[in-house]
Design brief:
With 336 residues, the protein is of the alpha/beta class. It is globular.
Amino acid sequence: MAFADRLLNAWYAGHPALGLLRPLEALYRRVVLRKRARFLSGESPSYRAPVPVIVVGNITVGGTGKTPMILWLIEHCRQQGLRVGVVSRGYGAKPPQLPWRVRAEQSAAEAGDEPLLIVQRSGVPLMIDPDRSRAVQALLASEPVDLILCDDGMQHYRLARDLELVLIDAARGLGNRRCLPAGPLREPVERLQEVDALLYNGATADRDDGYGFALKPTALVNLRSGERVSVQHFPAGQAVHAVAGIGNPQRFFNTLQGLNWRPVPHPFADHAEYSAQALSFSPALPLVMTEKDAVKCRAFAADDWWYLAVDAVPSPAFVAWFDGQLERLLQAPSQP
């Protein structure tokens, strides 16, 4: 197991040796609190877009289901007649220039795996740039949009936001509730008291402090042919090689088990790069991966490689709350 994986497990399972990192945690907390205070006071400038900006992010290291939730928000806002744009850091992307407009025909190496997935699924106008405020300005200059979703960017205070949605893995929670490097938190837990809504991925019901949402498997899609089949395509008990290069691979493996398959787990680092050789496993079995991994593997996929398409399903209470927020934001749009 890689060091990063061991550290992640320690954060969420608890380990007494993490106490040795408390002095570094205290320094980290001071830095992030001072940074936020500078923006809140106006000492450090931030860009406010002329349309509402909704940040979808987290305060933890590790996957929480942001990409499926972004896709749900895109579709839901479109159903309200809104023109939606998305900005993203584009982690791992190497575009010719920044900001960069992501197109469906680009490679994951150029566009980043998550931005490419979002564009291929939804066709939404999407701009990547580590400077999210610059990405927003470039997007507004190229597309007429009514609302912008910011994929991650909770800690990117140079971009003013009108709504903050924070996603939390319901099973793992906040781990040991400590900040980096002694724990998985990017900001102190008190930051959650200032956000607009908490969404718990995997919660079976709404909670006192937030809303539940599920990731529902909807189809198996063949990487080579694009054939889309039911999740009942494989019989119960089917053994499959399971590949996941996401923040929490175990959640994907659990999903496959929930479909009554027998996954042989192959966890990879988040945003991992793949090759045919790296995914050549024995014995010969169908291979099932996440959609995020699939955008990087189509060029060398074998005939029996599939990805599992999943959709976010938020609770009715969240949908009602979010519709109320949309109405409020669009009646009183942000001022530049």
